[in-house]
Specification:
By secondary structure, the protein is α/β, with parallel strands linked by helices. It is 25% helix and 32% strand. Helix 4 packs parallel to helix 6. Bound molecules: S-adenosylmethionine.
Length: 209
């Protein structure tokens, strides 16, 4: 599998882990400028650990939906180019602003990912990637509404949380429905369940059609 340029496998405490170079954020182990990327705390980290071809690469422009307090998006901004981080909950967004203070390519936006028109004037178009991790009902809709920001050959890399759509349904059935909805605007290239890192989550790599 190909890791994005700027992401490496390195030894931390005798264990091989993904790592990026940047200021530490969540007490993760460090080795010089490198810091471990904990796949158990990051769906994108788990997606890379699973060996999926995400198409992500160093220097890419990224729209990150569901940034929370910045755990994963901090790693993305370590290797990517301009990284727009959307989060609608004020409390985690405060921490996210702190994370961005140390990273000049990370732009936090306190916005609702279901309303892209509220940040369309800030986010550039023709982006290389959308990374999505919004624990909300209507995850396919969020991906479809933000598709406008992607370049023709851009990639959506989404983690779909089954329980956010329906707590009672079988995750496999939820994933089938979400993938069906995504087909309205995307061609799904690959999918992978994220166990053992994250229960009942499906990683999806797709491109706009
Ligand atoms: N991606 C984060 C990480 O790995 O560091 C964790 C994200 S957490 C699972 C999901 C986040 O999505 C929450 O912080 C939640 O507030 C946010 N979220 C849910 N719906 C959203 C929406 N419509 N717009 C923006 N953020 C949203």
């Amino acid at each position: 599998m190909s890791l994005p340029d700027g992401v490496e496998r390195r030894q931390f405490d005798n264990e091989e882990r993904l790592a990026t170079r940047g200021p530490s954020v969540y007490g993760e182990p460090t080795d010089g400028a490198w810091r471990a990327w904990d796949a158990r705390r990051s769906k994108l980290g788990a997606t890379l650990e699973k060996g999926m071809e995400t198409g992500l690469d160093g220097g890419d422009s990224v729209l990150y939906l569901g940034a929370a307090s910045g755990t994963t998006v901090s790693h993305v901004a370590d290797f990517a180019g301009p990284t727009y981080a959307v989060e609608f909950a004020p409390r985690p967004a405060r921490d996210l602003v702190g994370v961005a203070e140390d990273r000049d390519r990370l732009f936090p936006l306190l916005k609702d990912a279901r309303k892209p028109e509220t940040y369309a004037h800030v986010v550039e178009s023709d982006l290389d990637a959308i990374v999505q991790d919004v624990a909300t009902r209507g995850q396919a809709r969020v991906a479809l509404e933000n598709r406008q920001f992607l370049a023709e050959d851009g990639r959506l890399i989404a983690a779909i949380k089954a329980r956010s759509e329906d707590v009672t349904a079988e995750p496999a059935d939820v994933f089938e429905d979400v993938l069906g909805d995504l087909e309205d605007g995307y061609e799904v290239l690959d999918t992978e369940r994220l166990e053992p890192f994250h229960d009942d989550h499906l990683a999806v790599v797709a491109r706009p059609k």
